[in-house]
Amino acid sequence: MNFKQNKLLIGFLHIMIWFVLFMLPYLLSSGQNQAIKAVLFFSWIPLFLYSIIFYCNYFVLIERFLFSKKIIWFVIANLILITLFIWANQSIKEIFFDFHVPHNDKNDDFRPSKSLFIYSDFILFSVPVVFSIAVKTTERWIKTEVERKEAVTIKLESELQHLKYQLQPHFFFNSLNNIYSLVDTSPEQAKQTIHSLSKLMRYLLYQTNDEKVSLKSEIQFIINYIELMKLRFTENTKIEYDFPVLKTDLQVVPLLFISLIENAFKHGVSASQESEIIFKMAIDENRIDFSIKNHNFPKTESDKSGSGIGLQNMKKRLKLLYPDKHEFTATVVDGFFIVNLTLET
Length: 345
Known about the structure:
Layout: H1 3-28, H2 33-66, H3 71-100, H4 105-110, H5 114-183, H6 187-206, E1 213-214, H7 215-230, E2 237-242, E3 251-252, H8 258-267, E4 275-284, E5 287-295, H9 309-321, E6 326-333, E7 336-344
Parallel strand pairs: 2-4
Antiparallel strand pairs: 1-3, 4-5, 5-7, 6-7
Helix pairs in contact: 1-2, 2-3, 2-5, 3-5, 5-6, 5-9, 6-7, 8-9
């Protein structure tokens, strides 16, 4: 709902509330002529005065004085308004009594004192002031909350865009390192790797610009990436993967799993020892369970290839994009590094 629609809705609510307030005394009078005159003098005229006080505060006094911390001026202005309208209301009542109530000693005995009228009027005329403060404060809080959420959304979008710009060059950098390692040892594999990389980059450039992508496309991208990585390893490295064949497609944030896969190849492969990496994904309705199990070969402090920026970005993206809808664990068990990621799409 836009700003103009909000204004129209608020205006409509104001009209309906005052309409009900003005009609209620008339309906309770049962349409009797004498009762209608009493409604006019004792209900409609005070209600009209209440509405003036309400909107004087609603449109002018609260914004100019109360919200500006000029509380004394706010109180003085309302005291002047209330005093003026109490005088007007009392004058109208006296005119009504003079013209419509017979004057005799008996009636004078039962006629309420003027001080009682003034006291009750002061309380009644203070009510619209309190209501106007409540309404205006609520509207201001709602407006502030909407602006805060908009600011959070803008911050979120800019942060996600920044993370995405970090992710793609990071992925490209790692892939170029893989190709560089093959140029001298296996030129043909290097050529094949470049061709495979071009397919991956096409996905990165043209299919990841949307907020979410097809899980089928994401799985195919992951499989292509794993196959690309397998080219650079010897038979000492065993790489397996198991991805489901989707009957119904899901939508996921693009490139969310790649950081975990990169991390497995960084820390799960040894040049001198046998290594094993296993990727598994399971789908249960809108729940995605993704796990990786790999040998744990931590990088030394001198090795800067495992800076950890990929995992840091992935955790930030999970927190921003799947708040309260994800679980991530990472443990080392019997020399294996095991990660589990669960998403509710």
